[in-house]
Amino acid sequence: MATGGKVIRCKAAVAWEPNKPLVIEEIEVAPPQANEVRIKIVATGLCHTDLYHLFEGMHKDGFPAVLGHEGAGIVESVGPGVTEFQPGDKVIPLFLSQCRECRFCKSPKTNQCEKGWAVDRYDVMALEDTRFTCKGKKVLQFLGTSTFSEYTVVNQIAVAKIDPTAPLDKVCLLGCGICTGYGAAVNTAKVEPGSTCAVFGLGAVGLAAVMGCKAAGAKKIIAVDINPEKFEKAKVFGATDFVNPKDHDKPISQVLAEMTNGGVDYSLECTGNVGVMRSALESCIQAWGVSVIVGWTELHDVATRPVQLVKGRTWKGSHFGGFKSKDGVSEMVKAYLDKKVKVDEFITHNMTLDQINDAIELMKHSKW
Question: Key word Oxidoreductase present in the record (predicted)?
């Protein structure tokens, strides 16, 4: 392309400091260096993790930054050493790398990778090195992706090539939320046919977890949320029951135990709230229940009493749904095109980059 090897000036939403609105700025995006890919972002989702960094985590070294990590686009140019991609390829940038060479990538036991932004700076949520500048200042690339920009530069180990027929304004959601929830049920919990499940939190991740439970053959899927407006949407993805903790004067774990003869077989926590994590664990049947922590937080410790585990429960975590990132995203795009997973049904609003702060307000007030 004509822009290859040149600095691109484009529009991006910059988070100059924590707990403040994003600012639409013209930024400079440097050409890709060795093993890097420059991508024209066509569509991006807004994920709660973006809000977490802006309003909750607020790490002093994590700003200024361009947020966004749930995008899809088209390769504009590639740096030296890149052989897997070429200009024109449809791709999804990934916040989780898959180098295929490290001990984690070679192991079937994990989807983690020893390379990428998270190795040394997971608390800052961005590498110190960046291809973005604005007004003479270095701007960090959030989670190594920064999809709230018209162009971004990503290491090739964190890019998935996808089917050229895939609609980018839909499959962008497979870059985080849908894979995270769906995979937590299918890959991490390993939900079995005929089982009972509870999903705590009905945002996109929770709804995807519901979809995963259904795909795995669960017979009873209890959706738990304090917003009753979420239930109709949850039914679309396979929920059979809905429980609002506010409707009860007893712990939610006790409510679910009474509904399921002692507790559910599987519970998935999709809120990032440590109190809910404990409730989800204690909602499992004590003999063999499996509870999966899916929601992200670094702010508080999580706790329970040892007896909750001693009797046979398993408490585990799930990162990006257990999917090996490059492989898993490509497979999920194919599954969507084959109508095996839902994606369109997750979309509630279509907005422009200029409306990013309006989108953030919608999410903060559970209208998204």
Answer: yes
